[in-house]
Amino acid sequence: MTQASEQPSSFVDNEIDLRELFVAIWAGKWFIILITVIFAVGGVAYALSKPNIFQASALLAPTEGSGGVRLGGQLGGLASLAGVNIGQDGTSNTVIAKEVLQSRAFLSDFIGRHGLAVQLFGTKGWNVRESHWNYNREVYNPDATEWRTSEEGNSFEPTDWDLVEKFRVEHLSVSENKDNGMVTLSVRSQSPVAAQQWAEWLIRDINEHMRDEDVEEAEASIQYLETKLNETNIAGMQQVFYQLIESETRTVMLANAQREYVFKTIDPAVVPQEKSAPKRALIAVLATMLGGILGVFVVLIRAFIRNGKQDDIPQLSASNGKAG
């Protein structure tokens, strides 16, 4: 009998609690609507204040045989004995190139070579109608082509650290498909023209950078091998050195003959016609939902606090009656 009597009472309590919940929400409906409208308007205003961002992407494939000729077997072992590491198995040129592409040294040199500092820090946005940058004249003076200074006398010219961080975080994205090894390079900018141009420059520069490094390394190896060749009179070692020099010479020739040395462009970057961000409709919807949830939460908290205070009043009056 006790359990049977407790179950209906619990159901009644739950029903009453649920009914009180809806009553509290209905009583605070105007407050909820007000908060929701405020958040909706704020979300729309924020979404409209954000500039359009365009993204240009290029699909790249690792070139076959990049990184020179591989030596294996006896010749590779003899090269190690001679003190030269030529074409040994290790990290591929593609993996190295992908990391170099996002490295601070490469990006700093890339930004300086193409003069991107002003576009990164000295502009307010892109003029779509006239297809040119709108300069931030409080920071950069385009007439005198110089950076302005603050009231304290500090120049607004960004440091290499600032340039690389901004470019790497806000503009550059490199991803690799683990299934087929394809690499996607994406560049974001307020200017669709700049996004496409920067992507092309990055691909060209990383290919040239990796080629120059391999050619320089191969030429240094050739010079070292020729020195060792002149120092030995053993016919067998001379033959080994000749083969190693031939291999390194072939590496230099192949590197200079390949225009796309590490990455071959499968799908080149084009000037985007549609923005990739911001998602203004999504921002407005999320802001509206957040406002509604916050409004309901505040109303329920207020109702909970108010009911708690009302429950304390009878207890206080009962205790006062007993004392009397």
UniProtKB/TrEMBL annotation:
InterPro entries: Bact_polysacc_biosynth/exp (IPR050445), GNVR (IPR032807), LPS_length_determ_N (IPR003856)
Keyword list, A-Z: Cell membrane, Membrane, Transmembrane, Transmembrane helix
GO cellular component: plasma membrane
Presence of keyword Cell membrane: yes
Subcellular location: Cell membrane
The Polysaccharide chain length determinant N-terminal domain, residue ranges: 14-111
Sequence ranges assigned to domain Tyrosine-protein kinase G-rich in this UniProt record: 238-303
Annotated membrane topology: Multi-pass membrane protein
Protein name: Lipopolysaccharide biosynthesis protein
Annotated organism of origin: Marinobacter salarius
